[in-house]
Write a structure and sequence with these properties.
By secondary structure, the protein is of the alpha+beta class. It comes from Franconibacter daqui.
Length: about 90
């Protein structure tokens, strides 16, 4: 009896977490021209792939209350570094 409830709860949690991460979207330079800037965020010393960097930028943007972000810098040396402009 508990197994179906657990599966349903996990399914609902995954849908909710996907919706939260999808709330902030990445935009390009042309799309950003129609948006109001509200600051910037950056991540450094991140291991992994560029998608991991984008996910961390999106999480920071969401915490700041942004609806969109545009990556302005992405470098890889000994570690990754990325900066993004935030928009309302």
């Amino acid at each position: 009896m508990k197994t179906p409830f657990t599966i349903a709860a996990l399914g609902l949690a995954s849908i909710i977490s996907f919706g939260a991460s999808a709330a902030v979207q990445q935009v390009n330079t042309q799309q950003a021209q129609n948006l109001q800037p509200m600051g910037s965020v950056s991540v450094t010393q991140v291991t992994g792939a560029p998608m991991d960097i984008r996910q961390q930028l999106a999480e920071k943007a969401e915490k700041e209350g942004a609806s969109s972000y545009r990556i302005t810098e992405l470098t890889q040396g000994d570690h990754w570094h990325a900066t993004a402009e935030l928009y309302k």
